[in-house]
Write a structure and sequence with these properties.
Elements (H helix, E strand, L loop, with lengths): L2 H10 L23 H7 L5 E5 L2 E4 H11 L12 H27 L6 H12 L5 H12 L3 H23 L6 H10 L5 E2 L2 E9 L7 H19 L4 H11 L10 E6 L5 H8 L10 E3 L2 E11 L2 E2 L2 H30 L3 E3 L1
Length: 342
């Protein structure tokens, strides 16, 4: 499985994915509840797109998964962006083959779903529909109106989840001790550069400004500076930025948040270096534009504390381990399978 496909597997086969996202038939066409009406408009022909140990997956299965990967297509009459469609299709095909392999592995192991759990899952699946009529449309289109077919679909999904829990979820846990060990061995990843948290008010010249226009820009900048110096805090400076600033940050109260020193224009970095939090600079000229800075914080270079990053780091390590386990499972199941892409 290449890197792109690994990404699709992670995105589209989440361990807690809704049942509708996994209601793929091993031998018959299906679609999710959410995409049934769109699929009906697209009219897939149940053409085989893959065989997995003889089990046929169709273009209807494929289209269902393509909508799961790129749901925005539903807003464009079922169309996918031409530049992305090939990759979306490739990812969807990889996903439905993987799920079929996992399902067949569940059958090989003789796994079963208790009747009570299946009843509950079917009830939860029905709740995903916005109305009884929408559910009935799905039943007619996907299950030929048969509750038995629906239960088989849901059972299949639960069996897939059961295998994934055993082979991926239960093995992907990362302890806090393991998280700490990774942190200690990779301190360079947690170094933070010197940065400045600041707000700005900018007065910009027109393109190809004449001397007279540049003089007018300077006058407007000086007027803006007088108003900025009269502000008293983050809020009042931000309101003024929204009113008179001419750069894109005006819609965010002029707030750039934390910016690495080496990403700032030298003139702005030098001005910020000389300021204390809460201070407002004089006019800072960058080429023919003028900027007024309010410094909110000067953040020294250093290393992020473990306590500040541990939760996010642990989550990232688990996601990485989950990906590795899923890739390994896919490779293992394919090793002894006959997979034909048609």
């Amino acid at each position: 499985m290449n890197c792109r496909m690994t990404t699709w597997v992670l995105l589209m086969a989440g361990l807690s994915a809704p049942l509708a996202a996994q209601l793929v038939a091993s031998h018959e066409p299906t679609a999710t509840a959410a995409s049934a009406s769109v699929n009906a408009g697209s009219q897939p022909g149940d053409r085989p797109v893959a065989r997995v140990n003889g089990a046929v997956l169709t273009d209807r299965d494929l289209l269902r998964e393509m909508y799961a990967i790129f749901p925005y297509a539903r807003q464009h009459n079922g169309g996918f962006p031409p530049a992305m469609e090939a990759d979306i299709r490739k990812g969807a095909l990889q996903m439905i083959v993987f799920e079929e392999l996992v399902y067949q592995e569940a059958l090989r192991r003789g796994l079963t779903i208790p009747a009570a759990k299946l009843d509950q899952a079917v009830a939860e699946f029905r709740k995903q529909f916005r109305s009884p009529s929408e559910f009935q449309d799905f039943m007619r289109y996907e299950c030929r109106g048969s509750q038995k077919v629906l239960r088989a679909r849901v059972q299949r999904s639960l069996l897939i989840e059961q295998v994934l829990k055993t082979e991926v979820t239960d093995k992907s846990a990362v302890s806090m001790a393991q998280t700490r060990a990774f942190y200690d061995k990779n301190l360079a990843l947690f170094r933070t550069p010197e940065s400045f948290s600041l707000q700005t008010i900018s007065i910009l010249p027109p393109a190809n400004a004449t001397p007279a226009q540049l003089k007018e820009v300077r006058k407007r900048a000086e007027d803006a500076l007088r108003q900025a110096k009269a502000t008293t805090d983050y809020e009042t400076f931000g309101v003024l930025a929204e009113k008179i600033s001419e750069d894109d940050y005006r819609v965010m109260m002029g707030d750039h948040h934390a910016v690495d020193r080496d990403k700032l224009p030298p003139q702005v970095a030098a001005a910020a270096q000389a300021m204390k939090p809460g201070q407002i600079s004089d006019l800072v000229q960058v080429e023919q534009a003028y900027t007024i800075i309010r410094l909110n914080a000067h953040n020294s270079a250093g290393i992020q504390k473990f306590e500040d990053v541990k939760d996010l780091l642990r989550k990232q390590l688990r996601q990485q381990k989950t990906e590795q386990l899923r890739v390994a499972l896919d490779r293992k199941l394919r090793a002894n399978a006959k997979v034909e892409e048609l």
